[in-house]
């Protein structure tokens, strides 16, 4: 009897399932269940414990409001700007740091990675003061060197966006450098040697060997950056907590937080969450399609 | 086997009895858990527990207080109450968040009517309405939050302005022009990313965001005129500046004010401790006075801000918690301590002239009229206008903070009428 059970567990048909079981359980409990719950909640008005009413598509109809449109605009702009900076900049830095002749490259590698280890709230506090309105605040001091008047950074639509992007770039450049450095290790040196023989210069080698070879890494970094951009909340929260003047820092996740926790309207918050899920999936599918990720071979 | 079953049954029975409290004898210590977002509130209740334990040797209490950041505490409490598990016995809930906890037909908080109603004639009852629904009181505040004006006498003296002469907003504007002309220093500040300046003026003028029946009256002519006046102070008359940092609780404002950046600021009485804590250089220079009224003989104050301490329905010792809360926050001794420990204006007006209120402390030392601070409050006692709170109050405050003064005064992209009408319509759509 015992032997039979032992053999069944040990068989090739069962054992793989046992190995993937922890993942399956985690996925069902912490991902699928909340997603299904959120879908159900998005059709409900939730006033309290056991005080729930089904309201059909009311929460989705309520999405047609200026705050939601604004949150969409902020999230799209932020994602676009962060990707526009966080792919080329770390790529170039990674190539530089990969150069064995660069003096002190290990120090640079650690220094650039350090912000990723810092809490975004702690970093955000520093940047909040750095973007202060006083002429003595860091960024006003810097623009003062160029004869510019002190700016009220955290109250303007574009200066507020700049502040969020600066914090994001400061924090994530190091992480993306690590991804690109890993990708660079995989490019065979022979390619560069043949290019040298053919008389290619540095730029030509970068655009015709390095960038194409790093395509899978670029796709990966873009995909996670789309997730990161649309799900951004902490940067905005660090500057303005959950409410920013004129909604300049109201991203989709900040809007979920605001309606859920500040207004106790979890039904509506869930509806925003479901649209966010749909947006991220659509944007990523388009992006992967453009990069040719689905092409066979 | 049979003997084993009997033994097991007895053990289970005993365990059940013990956990249900049958074995709890009088004199045993009862633990109450308490969540707050203010370290000083925790200190205040710990002090109250000490007093309670001295007065009630047979019903000893132990307070397990936890101080969370503001947002975290409110989020955790909301989730705990909604899920029906994990809430503390007592919790502090800030006034602008309070309506969230009264939503629906069954608020998860305990009625406090039996400890509040017997004291009605001694309490500033307007302050209890903010934490009530359908005639049931769910929370007890720490203070009245009466709006007063804080004047920097050093600047006023330089300009030759006498505070006694400032009775109305027109006088205030006149004094402002004189101060700016004589000293070049802004007379006051207007918040642009928070709501205090505008909200205080609206309430002081006898108006509100919501009417007494809960209807939205934010876009009334009175409110539009008030926002226009504040905008003119900054952009036309130049007697005020947009608050550095956007609001009067920002580090930048404290530094600005501490350096003599403005001659006056209107905030509630509980702002006293912001001066003592964050603006040390103004010691001996700040005079607390009644705020100017909008009309001759009009009301001069508003009950602003606050935090209600509530008992959750998950509390296992609700009666004891109620008695303790009454002793801590409604008794004479307790309310006096809201001033001596916290620097707040007590909820019971019958203690405002108690001798303890004029004994030397950090506030009497700091303010020009420190010894007579409560005379200011007694003067405006009957002029402290209450606020109407409804289910959508959190959204209303949020919109005031992020839209009203910001768009009209800081950005100047909308007129007061446009912006107040837009907010009012949005609030109406939520109702």
Q: Could you outline the blueprint of secondary structure elements for this entry?
A:
The complex is a heterodimer of chains A (297) and B (431).
Chain A lengths: L1 H9 L4 H27 L2 E5 L2 E4 L3 H4 L4 H21 L1 H11 L6 H13 L2 H11 L7 H8 L11 H29 L3 H9 L4 H12 L1 H16 L3 H7 L11 H11 L3 H25 L7
Antiparallel strand pairs in A: 1-2
Helix pairs in contact in A: 2-15, 4-9, 4-12, 4-14, 5-9, 6-9, 7-13, 9-12, 12-15, 14-15
Chain B lengths: L1 H18 L10 E7 L2 H17 L5 E7 L2 H14 L6 E5 H7 L11 H4 L9 H4 L2 E2 L2 E2 L9 E6 H7 L9 H15 L4 E3 L5 H9 L16 H15 L4 E3 L8 H8 L5 E5 L3 H7 L7 E4 L11 E2 L4 E5 L6 H12 L2 H9 L21 H5 L6 H8 L3 E2 L7 H18 L5 H15 L1
Parallel strand pairs in B: 1-2, 1-3, 7-8, 11-13
Antiparallel strand pairs in B: 3-12, 4-5, 6-9, 6-10
Helix pairs in contact in B: 7-8, 10-17, 13-14, 17-18
Task: Give an overview in words.
The complex is a heterodimer of chains A (297) and B (431). With 297 residues, chain A is mainly alpha-helical. Chain A has 15 helices and 2 strands. In chain A, strands 1-2 form a two-stranded antiparallel ribbon. In chain A, a hairpin with a 2-residue loop joins β1 and β2. In chain A, α6 crosses α9. The longest helix of chain A is centred in the middle third of the chain and has 29 residues. Chain B has 431 residues and is of the alpha/beta class. Chain B is built from 18 helices and 13 strands. Chains A and B meet through β1 and α14 of A and α3, α4, α11 and α17 of B.
Largest sheet of chain A: 2 strands, antiparallel
What shape does the CA trace of chain B take?
globular
| Low-confidence regions of chain B | 16-26
- Total helical elements of chain B: 18
> Most extensive chain contact?
A-B, 28 and 38 residues
How far apart the termini of chain A lie comes to 49 Å
What is the makeup of the main sheet of chain B? Answer: 4 strands, mixed
Strand-residue proportion of chain A: under 5%
